Amino acid sequence: MRITILLFARLRDLAGSPRLVRAVAEGATVDTVWQVLAAEFPAVAPYRASISAAVDADYARFTTPVADGSEVAFLPPVSGG
Amino acid sequence: MPTTLLSITADPIDMASVVRLAEAGGPAGRFGAVTSFLGTVRGENLGRHVVELEYEAYEPLAIKAFEIISGEVAQHWPTVRLAVQHRIGRVPIGETSIVIAAASPHRAEAFQACRYVIERVKQIAPIWKREVFEGGEAWVEGATADPTDAAARKAAYGRACG
Predict the structure, then answer these.
(1) What ipTM does the predicted assembly reach?
(2) If you average pLDDT over residues B7-34, what whole number do you get?
(3) Option in A8, A59, A81 nearest B56 (CB)
(4) How far A27 CA lies from chain B's nearest CA (Å)?
(5) Is residue A75 part of a domain?
(6) Which CATH class name applies to B6-161?
């Protein structure tokens, strides 16, 4: 399955790109996608405990399944306002 | 000019237009109070001289976050009509980064709703600011965004009504 990964703020800086397309196996979850990202960019790995995620622009859990064509966003701690 | 109650803009915010949107619902004379909150860019943070802030948002999810917050406001204060606009991009010191306007028949719920919304925006909206200061720049990282975190929601309500 091909997944689009969206990265924001410091995560984008660490990975050097706001948008990546990566392949994951059937049955993958948000966590699977994160592991693919963290393997490629080890600098993002420590963020696992503090980030949240979205799938197709809806809040999601790391256990949320992803599908072919899903857009998975990883959100560092937020600071709007 | 915002045309919807909940919006994000890359332009300077016109507070009056956001207030007008909040006031616009229902028959004339429905509201007896409109409160507003403006977040503005402070020139000092943690002892650093701030030059500007640069905001970015995951826009479709940020609008959904505003919708979630608006729904929570409707539960707590059903008479309130809410308008929110957040700015993204570079915001110089002194300028406005967010306007919240709450219109209601009476002032108590309008004040409370306004405070609640800024607390919740800071907790869950997927918006980030990078502080550009004299000598460097840094991402500001606050809360882990989780709209289902009941403790965070309760804390926001407590601050609004405290």
Answers:
(1) 0.96
(2) 94
(3) A8
(4) 24
(5) no
(6) alpha beta
